[in-house]
Design brief:
By secondary structure, the protein is of the alpha+beta class.
Length: about 325
């Protein structure tokens, strides 16, 4: 099957038609994420991100549905009250961009979503709003950094989990200054262009050093790929598995990483592997073999308890660059 953006939108419309055919409480449905871009596929796989807005409280916040091995639906469910103060969504680095794209609407009752989009779109790209989005991301990253600095000694597994959350937030504190927040798959593919737009291309190398202290190549990633996939499979079978790691999402990560390695951009595959394995590891705390595999992978990346202080200092310097970029924006526009 040849997958195109048009085919993905068709799948989305079929989902909406099925959901809205009977009597229902759905107010609106709109697309978010990569399907709104020209090239949503990586390694022949993608997901279709949708938001469904309800009049009543939805039964669940998020669901994942398999369309094929390579394609899944990733659906968020919102109560209509989420949009009561809709102008605040201009600060949302994910939904805000989708709500400014009028091609995103798949279903709308009484032009309600058009009204929401008009409010969110107003001044969305103004320096004040860009600064506010970036400032919120930087503050979140800095708060995580402070938690890492806490003198209370954390077990290395918990420290690593918190550390990588901080790294992801810090990277997006940079990326958000000229675009939507970067997703797990696209973090290292698109971060260089975002950093370059700020005149800070060197931050790409610094980000890679935050993720791995050792050089990364295709051989290393291919060696660890079976253990990573095994962790994803084991986590997906647990009753408390989050939607992000369900079986329908496996190809979304595995195929894209394989494609990055094969295309000569092995470094870009590192973040989705680390981030999803980190999440799986937290679910597999009672699986000694899985814990051991994750710890050995971290050792391959040069991570062990002795490097914590040095990595915290590196993260601090990286965050200072984000804070400096924000200060520059504030000064330039007199904010």
């Amino acid at each position: 099957m040849h997958i195109t953006r048009e085919l993905l939108v068709k799948f989305a419309r079929e989902y909406v038609a099925k959901k809205t055919r009977p009597s229902n409480d759905i107010v609106a449905v709109y697309l978010t994420g990569s399907v709104l871009t020209e090239d949503p596929l990586i390694g022949g796989s993608t997901d279709i991100d949708l938001v469904v807005v309800h009049k009543e409280n939805p039964l669940f916040e998020r669901e994942v549905q398999r369309i094929s091995y390579e394609i899944s639906l990733d659906v968020q469910h919102h109560h209509q009250s989420f949009y009561t103060f809709h102008r605040r969504l201009r600060l949302n680095p994910w939904l805000g961009f989708a709500l400014c794209d009028h091609s995103s609407i798949l279903y709308d009752t009484d032009h309600w979503m058009e009204f929401i989009q008009a409010g969110v779109s107003a001044n969305f790209k103004s320096p004040e709003i860009v600064y506010a989005r970036g400032q919120a991301a930087a503050e979140k990253a800095r708060q995580l950094w402070f938690e890492l600095e806490d003198p209370q000694e954390l077990p290395f597994g918990l420290w690593t989990d918190l550390y990588y959350k901080a790294v992801g937030s810090a990277a997006n504190a940079i990326a958000i200054l000229n675009g939507p927040a970067l997703t797990t798959r696209r973090m290292l593919l698109e971060f260089p262009a975002r950093a370059d737009a700020l005149g800070k291309l060197e931050l790409t190398g610094e980000l890679l050093q935050l993720i791995s202290r050792a050089p990364i190549n295709a051989e290393i990633l291919n060696t660890w790929r079976p253990a990573w996939e095994n962790a994803l499979t084991a986590a997906s079978k647990l009753p408390d598995c989050p939607p992000n790691l369900l079986p329908a999402r496996k190809a979304y990560f595995v195929n894209s990483c394989a494609a990055m390695v094969e295309s000569g951009t092995a470094h870009a595959a590192l973040w989705p592997m680390v981030e999803t394995w980190r999440q799986a590891d937290q679910l597999l705390a009672d699986a000694p073999a899985q814990q051991e595999a994750w710890q050995k992978f971290l050792e391959t990346l040069g991570f062990n308890p002795t490097i914590k202080d040095e990595q915290i200092e590196r993260l601090d310097r990286f965050l200072e660059n984000a804070e400096a970029a924000l200060a520059g924006l504030k000064t330039e526009y007199g904010l």
